[in-house]
Amino acid sequence: MRRDRVSEDIFVFVSDLYVQVTSTVMLTAEGALVIDAMPFPSEAREIIAFVEGRLGPDSVRYVMNTHHHADHVYGTYLFPGAEVVAHDACRELLSELGPASLARAKQHTPALAEVELRLPDISFREEMYIQLGHRHLRLLHTPGHTPDSMSVFETNERSMSAGDLAMPVPHIVSGDLDQFRASLQRIQALEPDFVVQGHGNVLLKGEVEELVEGHLQYLDNITERVRELIENDEPPRKLREIDIESCGLSRIPLDGSVSKLHLENLIHMYKMMAGA
Ligand SMILES: [Zn+2]
């Protein structure tokens, strides 16, 4: 698995197995902080081996779930000695939907056979603060991709792990467009020096601006394009003709998966706007 060092003791792991999903690891003299835990046990174990190599056994103190989606939470059960922290709604969604969706996932994906559902131990509604060693974390509720999404801002290094609020294309299917816009603006207002996306590369300062402006424009563009289609009484199959580049974003990132996410956005939007 790829490991990027973004500062002295902050590392970002990028999955080889599932759409470049990321995990942020911060090392301190008091133990480690992990933000998102990978979907597959093999990759979560790689992270544990890395931390234990630096800080010794059982040294992860906190695991934070940026939201309840499987690709960010399934590895969490491998950190039994850590406190698991998430938004209130993440805990609710995981207890409600988690057991059935994990059972389904195990049927399709043998590599998940041993996964156990681990619920957050601590949750918050608006904002929470965690200090460990020299790291000061602000956990912020930043809904939009999902209702329970949170971002983690480390105030000394000005690093932001934004979960799927930041990825190469905004994905709105289980979220809310207005909340998405507001959360992007909130992230930008904090002026992070770098942003760890939920999927894909770490963004540096100048790229953060580009991401926020580009995503806000993209959300306007898809709204406009789908509205036109509906006003002209065009059938939903015409959505396939609206490619991602004509809406302002590249089709290249995440090995091309962005086009699939884009089409899901269009279909979702069509259903919402046509009231179907
Ligand atoms: Zn994700």
Number of domains: 2
Strand content: 15-25%
**How large is the count of helical segments?**
6
What value does the Rg take, in angstroms? 19 Å
* Bound compounds: zinc ion
Overall pLDDT confidence: 96
CATH architecture of the largest domain: 4-Layer Sandwich
Note the run of SSEs as H and E: EEEEHEHEHEEEEEHEEHH
What is the total tally of β strands? 13
In spatial order, strands of the major sheet run: 1-2-3-4-5-6-7
The CATH C-level name of the largest domain is: Alpha Beta
Secondary-structure content class: alpha/beta
* Major β-sheet annotation: 7 strands, mixed
CATH-level-4 superfamily name of the largest domain: Ribonuclease Z/Hydroxyacylglutathione hydrolase-like
Shape: globular
**CATH fold category name of the largest domain:** Metallo-beta-lactamase, Chain A
Which range best describes the helical content: under 10%, 10-25%, 25-40%, 40-55%, 55-70% or over 70%?
25-40%
Distance N to C terminus: 42 Å
Low-confidence stretches: none
Summarize the structure in words:
- With 276 residues, the chain is an alpha/beta fold.
- The protein folds into two domains: 2-205, 4-Layer Sandwich (Metallo-beta-lactamase, Chain A), CATH 3.60.15.10; 218-274.
- Helix content is 36%, strand content 23%.
- The protein has helices at residues 41-55, 70-73, 88-108, 177-189, 205-231, 257-274, and strands spanning 2-7, 10-14, 22-28, 31-35, 60-64, 83-87, 122-124, 127-132, 135-141, 150-154, 159-161, 194-196, 202-204.
- Strands 1-2-3-4-5-6-7 form a seven-stranded mixed beta sheet. It has a six-stranded mixed beta sheet with strand order 8-9-10-11-12-13.
- Helix 4 packs antiparallel against helix 5 and helix 5 (205-231) crosses helix 6 (257-274).
- The chain is globular.
- The N and C termini lie far apart (42 Å).
- The mean pLDDT is 96.
- Bound molecules: zinc ion.
